[in-house]
Amino acid sequence: MDRRQFMAGAASIGISGIWASRLSAAPSQMAWREDRRLFPQGVASGDPDDHSIVLWTRRPFDAGDRQELTVEVALDPDFHRVVAAERTPVLAAADWTCRTLVGGLSPATVYWYRFADDSGAGSRIGRTITAPRANDQRPVRFAFVSCNSVNEGAQNAYARMIWEDERAAADRKLGFVLHLGDFIYEVVEYPEETPHRYSRTVYDLGHIPDARKVGNFYVPTNLAGYRHVYRAHIDDPDIQDARAYLPFVCMGDNHEFSWQGWQSFIKYGATVEPAQPLRVAANQAWWEYIPSRVRKASGAALEQFSPPAVEKVAIDTFDDDGFGTETNNRIAVGSMTAYRALRYGKHVDLILTDLHSYKAADPTDRPEAAALDSGDYPVIPQEWLEIVDGGRDYAGGKPPAIIAIGDKSIPNYRKDEPAHTVLGREQKAWLKARLTQSTATWKIWGATNGTLDMRTDPQNLPAGLVKDRWPGRDYGTFGGGDMSGAFAERAEIYNLVRDEKIPGFVTVSGDRHSFWAGYAAPALPPAEFAPVGLSFITGSISAPGLGEAAEFFKESALRPLYVRKVEGAPPEHTINLTIKRGVRSALEYAASGDIEAARALTNPDVAPHLEFVDMAGHGYAVVSAGPDTIETEFVCIVRPIARATTPDGGPLRYRVSHHAQMWQPGARPRLEQRIVEGDAKLSI
After folding, report:
1. Beta strands, E only, 450-504
2. Which stretches of the chain drop beneath a pLDDT of 70?
3. β-strands 248-250, 177-179: how paired?
4. Residue 18 belongs to what H/E stretch?
5. Helix or strand or coil: residue 312?
6. Between the CA of residue 245 and those of 129, 177, 319, 587, 654, what are the distances in Å?
7. How far apart are CA 306 and CA 224, in angstroms?
8. Residues 6+ apart with CB under 8 A from 532
9. Half-sphere exposure of residue 434, counting CA atoms within 13 Å on the CB side?
10. How far is 108 from 40, CA to CA, in rounded Å?
11. Beta strand 402-405 pairing with 408-411
């Protein structure tokens, strides 16, 4: 790519372009002095390719609508070898955030960068790395993370990540961080009202301007609210350090807009509301604070988002994919298109999808469905979830007229409706095309929320433990809401991988606040189990998960399926056994504490897709992808309820490696597990 092509490409994504020189490097001519007070959210970089990267900072000014900064890029941290120096605008209309795309860089190269205003006051120095060329044979190594809850925890995992990477051998250093959503939590607690949740201190993020109160939480109602929440999260020193140390590749999940939202809908309690202006505001704030190459509808305006004008009006009509056809909904969602792919050397094609902007309404959340739930069990019969998910396509286009579960039955309210979609029509077609056309060794699908089934076998509960017998045919699922509950659509993608004989298929996800490792399979027993790839889910950086919540469950006959509590000992998360080995295994361990006896009671059909699950895991995962093998390592820290006092981010609970050789299409992939350090006995 030459300079002219690069500048046109930068303009097409609405970013100022700077062209670096590969032929010469010279000492800095800028009178820079670091003043972090004037750059309160630090610096960041994002979406590297083999010749360019997006750089970011925020420098608020007290006056005017437009100012300019100088950005420098160098081959050394002392800026003795500067390869690019240019003026770049910063606008009040973009909340004084600044982003610039620097091109002409060398592939697979570490660079340092900094910003300064006209007085010479400068940002902290950032470090970034370009991607290797598409034919580069070297292995690729990156971390993937999700769920930074600054309101309820500490971001110690980032400190651990940096500490380990600084000490790693050259061929074991990270190239980038893949952030799979919930970079912010738009639901904010105020400590003067809610000082604690579970065993955690609620930290003060300030008051959201014009906030709406929902239960114990406050949520944004406009752009100013979202901007406040982004600033409050990026003010965290560990998040700032991580963004300054490595380039981030980010995809939003639900909390970047609204916890239970989709398209331009928000949902609080049982009330669903249209929220087209709020969707635009959420997209704009994401674009302003996350350096990326996403497309925005406002086109080639170089420095700001330029939001479209939309109205909050009812969304009553839907196309065959469940997408609201109301004009303001289409404009609001279309104001930013985030799904995209990045090629990283010969071995990795990173394919990122947006799982909330285009999804249809959850078919299990309809009022008709309530009649099937007795409320006695923590899981839902899998067969009825499959029926309502499949719609008119269920059972090869022969859905039942009646959904019967135990002694309850209702008309099949989905029998004339299309199968549920999370991806939406256009994005799904794009994903399929990218998978089939990719020439990378590993096709890594960043699915943001979990693709691995979360189910158990309530049919095997001892008689009398629950008043009424299990009404399902066999297995029970913990519910939909993520990609694992989109049975038909997930199978459609996995069957494509099988039918097109696509090698090296891997999914990576976040959102569940737990670590999972296993296999991508279209179906589980009693159907045929035929995996087509590997699947991994990372624990949260800090947000609490189901394992932690279970420690506060009231005493009940079913609590042992979640947690074992013995006086004088820390709680143990039997929910891991419930999901991976079945209810009998969990109940045995809860009663005896004997892991071998518990493993002996494993139901082999409940989770053949799982090699590891920890519902109380915090930390990050690291992928190493080479020509013949792929490894995913889980780095689990202790519960991050307070900021670590040591540079390493505090102690680890465990480090577990999952390794696989490349498999032939049609053959079953095999994960080999190794406990590197710590204790994960209830997870393996």
Report:
1. 455-456, 476-477
2. 1, 10-15, 300-302, 374, 480
3. parallel
4. strand 16-19
5. coil
6. 9, 10, 44, 45, 24
7. 15
8. 494, 495, 497, 498, 502, 505, 520, 521, 522
9. 24
10. 29
11. antiparallel
Mean pLDDT of the chain: 95
DSSP state of 540: B
What are residue 112's DSSP bridge partners? 74, 127
Interatomic CA distance for residues 523 and 531, integer angstroms: 8
Question: Cα 64 vs. chain centroid, distance in angstroms?
Answer: 37
476-477 and 505-510 as β-strands: parallel, antiparallel, unpaired? unpaired
Tokens standing for 283? 């997209």
The DSSP code for 392 is: G
Alpha helices in 418-573 (DSSP H): 425-437, 487-499, 546-550
Of the candidates 194, 230, 193, 190, the residue with the CA atom closest to the CA atom of residue 206: 190
Which structure tokens are listed for 171? 């061929």
Nearest Cα to Cα of residue 339 among 244, 264, 446: 446
Question: How many Cβ atoms from other residues are within 10 Å of residue 8's Cβ?
Answer: 12
Which stretch of DSSP H or E encloses residue 145? Answer: strand 140-145
Locate 260 and state its tokens.
């239970």
How many other CB atoms sit within 10 Å of the CB of residue 172?
A: 13
Beta bridge partners of 534: 506, 519
Q: At what angle do helices 237-245 and 156-166 cross, to 10 degrees?
A: 30
At 641, list the tokens: 């309820």
14/336 Cα distance (integer angstroms): 11
Element containing residue 240 per DSSP (H, E): helix 237-245
CB 255 within 8 A of CB 181: yes
> For residues 595 and 272, what is the distance between their CA atoms, to the nearest angstrom?
45
Provide DSSP, 335-387: TEE--EEEEETTTEEEEE--SSSSPPPPGGGSGGGGGG--SSSSSEEHHHHHH
Looking up tokens 């309101």, which residue turns up? 151
Distance of CA 506 to the CA centre of its chain: 15
The pLDDT tens digits of the residues spanning 444-453 come to 999 999 999 9
The pair of structure tokens assigned to 32 is 């820079």
34: nearest Cα among 284, 248, 282, 244: 244
The rounded distance, in Å, linking the Cα atoms of 391 and 71 is 54
Give the per-residue SS3 of 172-241.
Answer: HCCCCEEECCCCCCCCECCCCCCCEECCEECCCCCCCCCCEEECCEEECCCHHHHHHHHHHHHCCHHHHH
pTM above 0.90, yes or no: yes
Contact 298, 15 (CB under 8 A): no
Question: Looking at residue 100, what is its pLDDT?
Answer: 93
Q: Is 127 exposed, middle or buried (0-12, 13-18, 19+ CB in 10 A)?
A: middle
E-strand stretches of 421-580: 442-449, 455-456, 476-477, 505-510, 515-520, 533-537
Which position has the token pair 């049982």?
A: 270
Tell me the two tokens of residue 261: 């939202």
Task: Tell how many helices (H) and how many strands (E) occur in the chain.
Answer: 14, 37
Tokens of 268: 């609080």
Those residues whose C-beta lies under 8 Å from the C-beta of residue 145, and which sit 6 or more positions away, are 157, 177, 178, 179, 180, 510, 538, 541, 620, 621
| pLDDT at residue 300 in the model | 54
Alpha carbons 215 and 193: distance in angstroms, whole number: 11
pLDDT of residue 244: 98
Question: Following CA atoms 415, 416, 419, 425 in sequence, which dihedral angle do they give, to the nearest 10 degrees?
Answer: 180
Q: Rounded to an integer, what distance in angstroms lies between the CA atom of residue 356 and that of residue 367?
A: 22
Classify 575 as helix, strand or coil: helix
SS3 618: strand
Beta bridge pairs of residue 352: 340, 446
Are the C-beta atoms of 238 and 643 separated by less than 8 Å? yes
Q: How far apart are CA 324 and CA 569, in angstroms?
A: 52
